[in-house]
Specification:
The chain is an alpha/beta fold. 23% of the residues lie in helices and 27% in strands. Strand 3 and strand 4 form a beta hairpin. Helix 3 runs parallel beside helix 4.
Amino acid sequence: MTDLYFTRFGLLLILIVSTVLGGCPTCPNISSVPNGFTKMTYVSIKDHIENPGRGFITQTSTLSSHYNPLTVNYLDSLRERTGVNMIRRNFVLDTFVSSHIDSNFLQQIKNDLQVLESAGFNIVVRFCYTLQLQPHAPYGDANKYWILEHLKQLSPLVHQHEGVITALDAGFIGTWGEWFYTTYFGDPNKRDYLKHPPHGYSDAVLKDRKEVLMGILNAVPNSIQVLVRYPKLKTSMFDDKPTTYGEVLKHTNKARTCHHNDCFLSSDNDVGTYSDKAKEYPYLHKDSEYCIVGGETCRPTSGPREECPTALKEMAMFHWTFLNQDYNKDVNNKWKKGGCYEEIHRRLGYRLSLTQVILPNTIHPGGTLCYHITINNSGFASPKHMNIYLVLHSKSNGHYYAAELSKYHDTRTWHPGHTTLDGSVHVVKNFPAGSYDTYLAIGDKILHDKSDFYVLLANQHVPVYSSGYNKLNHGIKVDAHHLSDSSSCQNLVSWTPPKHSRYSRVFKGTF
């Protein structure tokens, strides 16, 4: 297929020949910026941008015996005071340890999830039965039968509000839902490491634990990862090989089982998080490329482990996505004194910025729009799976057109460092002639109509803060000259932008 590119003065500058693979033309290498194309470069910024599904979080808890509902005003105040737009919420089923959850409590959970969506917040969900530590059994958690029954009741809620849920802690088992102080799944005071190496649990206990984890995974959508407390829990359930991208694409249970560390940096082995660091560190480094890691610190130490150098090193090594800002404040205050707290605030999860973009100056109905986009991720982790749109906005009538690029580019592979997106978009034969501004929009696959769940890029003069998309600062002319129209690749189609946000989405307060 042959595409003719013209300057805005209508002079023929270059003849670009594209090959056709499966009906979709492929572009030549435009990284050298051939005639008829323009390269834009961008300057990064240090603003504390409130992007979805990442960052410091605040933990809240509510009991079925005494429900404390979330409100938009409360979440707005959190955002204004701390720049937080994600919480962890403990839903404590203390009155349903041996009975079904009643409809009133289910409705209260639903109301909370709706409030979170209205306030532009994400949530890490945890269900458990008690927050009170007992010195010995019974610890107050439920048995396997009731956990599985409760999962059946909770599953529709989780599916209905999939978009706001960043992750689900495995929860349910034991005090705080941490799978340790438990009556029915291996009392820690009765573990026998000699009889049942290496975990101290019998095969029957391990089988019950895995049945609960499988029940949780089956109860939630494929997009939601389930976080377990210890790396060895995951390896004992599956295998000791890190998750691969192929497993992610297949939505395997292994790929959907991820990690929370609730004693980060609080001892040499993070208070039992690791049992064999020589094996578990390399494993978690690779596994966390596609699996969420989050949690909190739990106590200060007398050594240097919790200081800034180790904190930054291990957050980068294990691709941390979220961290509790409220606990332990003594540790967080050390980071403030050490000068790394603001860097951690910016880098938790992903932090995306444009490096360069190459686009044509003129395109033609029936032709091809070739693009070359380089994105830098200076965060600790890659984003979740999101929609990617290349957007054209008509200067004459304000209409939006977009091509979804997610079929060819996967945000889950945007690991720390640079990622280049090369490709082509088909311009349909009846595409309106005129002048267009260009944008890049990266947004949630479920909540695609709400700008709070779109990613703002960390560049000067790029984010359109209230709208959620990003201006590429380049205009394209669509010429009236029509070319042949035989392509079956991704088209530019009419696009409805997300609803404007009520928030600035940049934290300008102090730490």
